[in-house]
């Protein structure tokens, strides 16, 4: 039996977070994030061979994060981290050991911003900014990895 891939583990954790939060949210508002996790998982499996897979994952993940963040800002933050982890795994972005402090600072900053959002009672726009920041970090890491491969492989990447 092979080990589970990191993106599949994150997908399962994402579903568990949404289902647990739906248990504590009365009414039909808890069902929409569950449906959006299913849409994200379907997008994940249907686009395996597509060259622009990351775009579709970002689109379905953004809707999931914003809708979940509208109900609970903490759920939105956790799902933003998880969607970013799935997309990073799909893009094969690896975090080297010397970049772990920077990743810790970025996660701490998003945690602090989320705390400010919770205290200020504004959700959608700052959460979209958080999601955009996470996407920008992934883009910078992907570009850096591309430049590294181009410089040291000797081949055209």
What's the structural domain tally? Answer: 1
Radius of gyration: 17 Å
* Residue-averaged pLDDT: 80
Give, in order, the helices and strands.
Answer: HHHHHH
Helix content: over 70%
Structural class: mainly alpha
Task: Summarize the structure in short.
By secondary structure, the protein is mostly helical. It is built from six helices and no strands. It has one domain.
Describe this structure in words.
The protein is an all-alpha fold and 157 residues long. It has one domain (6-153). It is built from six helices and no strands. The chain has helices spanning 6-23, 31-46, 53-71, 73-90, 100-120, 124-153. Helix 1 (6-23) runs antiparallel to helix 4 (73-90) and helix 2 packs antiparallel against helix 3 (53-71). The radius of gyration is 17 Å and the shape is globular. The relative contact order is 0.11. The model has no long low-confidence stretch (mean pLDDT 80).
């Amino acid at each position: 039996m092979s080990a589970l891939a990191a993106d599949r583990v994150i997908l399962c954790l994402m579903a568990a977070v949404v289902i647990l939060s739906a248990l504590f949210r009365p009414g039909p508002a808890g069902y929409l994030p569950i449906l959006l996790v299913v849409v994200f998982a379907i997008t994940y499996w249907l686009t395996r061979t597509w060259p622009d897979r990351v775009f579709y994952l970002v689109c379905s993940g953004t809707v999931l994060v914003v809708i979940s963040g509208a109900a609970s800002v903490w759920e939105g933050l956790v799902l933003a981290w998880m969607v970013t982890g799935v997309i990073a795994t799909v893009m094969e972005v690896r975090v080297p050991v010397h970049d772990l402090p920077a990743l810790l600072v970025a996660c701490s900053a998003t945690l602090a911003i989320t705390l400010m959002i919770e205290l200020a009672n504004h959700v959608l726009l700052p959460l979209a900014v958080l999601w955009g920041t996470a996407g920008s970090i992934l883009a910078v890491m992907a570009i850096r990895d591309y430049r590294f491969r181009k410089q040291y492989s000797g081949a055209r990447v």
